[in-house]
Amino acid sequence: MRDLEANLQYEYMDKVRGYVKQQEEQIGRPLTFYVKTFGCQMNARDSEKLVGILENIGYVEGEDEHADFVVYNTCTVRENANNKVYGRLGYLQNYKKKNPIMKIALCGCMMQEPEVVENIRKHYKFVDIVFGTHNIFKFAEILCNNFESGSQVIDIWKDTDQIVEDLPIKRKFSFKSGVNIMFGCNNFCSYCIVPYVRGRERSREPKDIIREIEGLVADGVCEIMLLGQNVNSYGKNLDEPISFAQLLREVNKIEGLKRIRFMTSHPKDLSDELILAMKECDKVCKHLHLPLQSGSSRILKIMNRSYDKEKYLDEVKRLREQIPDIALTTDIIVGFPGETEEDFLETMDVVKKVRYDSAFTFIYSKRTGTRAASMSDQVPEDVIKDRFDRLLKEVQTISAEKAEQYEGKVMPVLAEEMDDQKDGYVTGRLDNNSIVHFPGDSSMIGNIYNVRLDECKGFYYMGELADA
Ligand code: SAH
Ligand code: SF4
Ligand code: F3S
Fold first, then answer.
1. Would you say the CB of residue 42 lies under 6 angstroms from ligand 3?
2. pLDDT band at residue 1 under the 50/70/90 scheme
3. What is the DSSP string of 411-424?
4. pLDDT-derived band at 458, boundaries 50, 70, 90
5. Which of 75, 357, 426, 466 meets the CB 3.0–4.6 Å disulfide criterion with 440?
């Protein structure tokens, strides 16, 4: 049974479909859309929801921004994510001059910042639709308002506790899919804007999650990624509380599903229960993304991360005791306000001790409204650059060494798609997310094979079927 809100949105879709058809008849060809996603996996999943609705109302997918309807699903986690969007809006204005029926929509995290919306209202009048992260389920309704009024529609909510199930979704990949298990974040790490733009933590009901995954599997999906800003706090506020570890065990039972991944696990509350569930659930990939942010306990405290260097290293030890070959990846920020050379060396120390399979390194970016933005001792750019380069070098050297240790080994690879570089080859992934190219054909996609990793080429491998 669909809920009332979903029913309402389907009614709007019916209505907009009529408007789309009218325009199609006027111009004598189908209307096209192009959705460009910035940012993380959550945004990628949200974009699949937007595409689901766009296809439902009769738009067909175009190739680029020359489409009749361009949607930018934005990210604002760092200033450069934000700047990219403004940069591209200039091009869109020119395209629109040549195509008067063109519509432009902006949505996603950046739109939850009042000053951004003000700027668009004042200086980007050619943008037709602006909405945020909390009312994305109202996309059809907002679009309908725009068709009917013919003028700019801006609709931003401050927050919501609503989760609307059962709206159309169009997956980007046939064999894998993200699955939201929770929305929002309550952690307020002092550098981070996400809690301000994604609102408070809300978990989906386990039965809705399981039903969605069963549907996906029936539709050919063999790998899912459970998505949340901190999956470790999943389920705590549900009427019938359930832990993330319990959810994993339930998902692991779903027949036909082959691989389970998840993002992101916060080190402040990585439980033994979760480690054990990861170990015992055969479908759960032996890979953990465990964002460090900084190795300095002093900085971690100011970041409001609720763990220190020792606790983090202890978690890594507990993980490796239970799952010795687990792949570990991380996120690190360089140049947080007040970071000294000593603090930075603590980060380098953790990197050397943990030896990550890979790490995303970020230069600290000041985000308006966060606590860190008003901290006085911002680190000079040249100092940050120097530290960033040293960190990157260390991280890359270790990654390469870790990757090389698998050369010659036979490992399970999920065949994901035909190789677009080399005929007669398929591209797949190891448990730890590394890419492997090996000879094969399209009948193999969605299955797991034992592949010998003949040659490590940095961040990917060339291999061949082990039992061929
Ligand atoms: N919820 C996840 C992270 C989501 S944001 C977690 O807690 O781990 C993804 C990454 O962006 C973060 O891990 C952090 O490393 C980086 N990030 C967030 N805010 C940032 C900022 N202001 N400057 C630089 N990097 C930032
Ligand atoms: Fe941002 Fe921290 Fe929440 Fe992650 S846990 S989204 S870094 S506030
Ligand atoms: Fe960016 Fe929003 Fe994700 S700010 S990182 S798209 S939650």
1. yes
2. low
3. EEEEEEEE-SSSTT
4. confident
5. 426
Compute the distance from residue 458 Cα to the ligand 3 centre, in Å: 28
DSSP string, 137-183: GGHHHHHHHHHHH-S-EEE--S-------------S-SSEEEEE-EE
Residues with a CB atom less than 6 Å from ligand 1: 77-78, 191-192, 194, 229-230, 264, 266, 291, 293, 331, 333, 362, 364-365, 367
> Residue 243 is encoded by which pair of tokens?
């832990």
Here the contacts of 381-385 (C-beta below 8 Å, separation 24 or greater) are: 383/335, 384/334, 384/335
pLDDT per position as a tens digit, 309-339: 999 999 999 999 999 999 999 999 999 999 9
The candidate with the shortest Cα–Cα distance to 262, out of 288, 291, 294, 292, is 288
Q: What sign has the CA pseudo-torsion 412, 418, 421, 425?
A: positive
| Upstream peptide bond of 330 is cis (omega within 30 degrees of 0) | no
Ligand 1 centroid to residue 198 C-alpha, Å: 13
pTM for the full predicted model: 0.95
The pLDDT tens digits for 159-178 are: 888 889 889 999 999 899 99
Token pair, residue 62, equals: 């175009």
Q: Is the CB of 192 under 6 A from ligand 3?
A: no
Averaged pLDDT for residues 176-188: 96
Using CA atoms, how far residue 1 sits from 5, 7, 10, 208, 245, in Å, is: 12, 10, 13, 12, 28
Q: Which residues contact 266 (CB under 8 A, 6 or more apart)?
A: 187, 230, 232, 233, 291
Segment 250-295, tens digit of pLDDT: 999 999 999 999 999 999 999 999 999 999 999 999 999 999 999 9
